[in-house]
Amino acid sequence: MRRHLPLIDFSDVGMACAGTPAWDAVREQVMPALGFHGCFEAVYDRVASELRLSLLEIAKDLLSLPLQTKLRNTSDEPYGGYLGRLPGLAYESLAISDATRPHAIPSFARLLWPSGSNPDFCEKVRSFTKQLAELEEMVRRMVLESLGVAEYAEEQMQSTCYLLRFTEYGAAGEWEEEKRKLAHMAHRDRGMLSIVCQLNEVDGLQVEAMDGEWHLAAPRSVASFFVIAGEALHAWSNGRVYAPMHGVAMDGTRARYSAVLFARPTSERTIQAPAELVDGDHPSLFRPFEYGDFLHFCASAEGRKLKRCRLRAYRREAVTKEDEA
Ligand SMILES: O=C(O)CCC(=O)C(=O)O
Ligand SMILES: [Fe+2]
Predict the structure, then answer these.
(1) Residue range 40-50, pLDDT digits in tens
(2) pLDDT (0 to 100) of residue 316
(3) Domain of 182: which CATH number?
(4) Considering its fold, how many domains does the chain have in total?
């Protein structure tokens, strides 16, 4: 597992420079990376390092709240709130749904700290979310442009909502020896794109490329993020974008903290590849589906048993023996 994931430098581009040569040079690297690895390391210096450090303190504070308080972070949608206490997994996380909506962050703060308004927390999380959402939007726009379907960008962004998740992967001492290693089971993300920000220097994220080779996603710079494609984008792009298996493995000596911004289609959104991406060489891979319905399938007993190919099983396509394992 010594091979690195592709590294793409976003330092010189922003949404405002779409169409410039600098933009095109970055775009040319995005689709090959997402097509084969389903993931790349983005260098993106728009998030100041002080803000990143503040987010680490915020994540630690949030995750050290009493369990009863954390359990108030509920959601109507599967995977939309507190996750943790999973048998054998040193994993706990809290989530802010619809994090780019104006009231989402203050409501989350009030829920966890009813006695104080916490403006500093709100401002830092707002600014962090905004910057990560801009990176996500750039990557998505580049993907659509590369596929020749940029005209769908606007409608796709309008039916996107963002979920910000803070996660702690436990350290040694808290977990039995044999259970300590795998802190987060290998999975594919369900949505469009996820932007992973590792907050402290404890590595552990691993990603499996299309050829079955696993890569350690260890940040190579203080401005690094990992962009991971999810199953909804895989389906929408009719397989052009790969949604990789990934998970977090730990040696168990120190806790790891991350903040991940998930770009997800809204629940009622129908995921269907545009006609331009379906032809004789690329027959339609999935029948159209409603994203919220897929989420419920993933959270069902049947969906949770499937480790690798939930989307195929959900669309009742052939499921191989390996998928059932
Ligand atoms: O925390 C990380 O590095 C990755 C988390 C992840 O894959 C997820 O929450 O879906
Ligand atoms: Fe993930």
Answers:
(1) 999 999 999 99
(2) 66
(3) 2.60.120.330
(4) 1
Helices (H), 37-118: 49-63, 67-70, 104-112
194, 224, 295: residue to mutate for ligand 1 pocket, most atoms within 8 A of CB: 194
Quote the ligand 2 centre to 120 CA distance (angstroms): 28
Q: Is the pLDDT of residue 166 over 80?
A: yes
In a domain, 285, yes or no: no
Q: Which residues have C-beta within 8 Å of that of residue 138, sequence separation ≥ 6? A: 10, 13, 14, 15, 18
Residue of 202, 260, 298 with the most ligand 1 atoms within 8 Å of its CB, for mutation: 260
Residue 28 within a domain: yes
Domain assignment present for 302: no
pLDDT tens digits, 100-141: 999 999 999 999 998 877 889 999 999 999 999 999 999 999
**170 CA distance to ligand 1 centroid (A)?**
14
In the structure, which protein residues have their CB atom closer than 6 angstroms to any atom of ligand 1?
Answer: 165, 167, 184, 189, 196, 198, 205, 246, 248, 258, 260
- pTM score, two decimals? 0.94
DSSP characters for 250-285? --SSS-EEEEEEEEEE-TT-EE---GGG-SSSS---
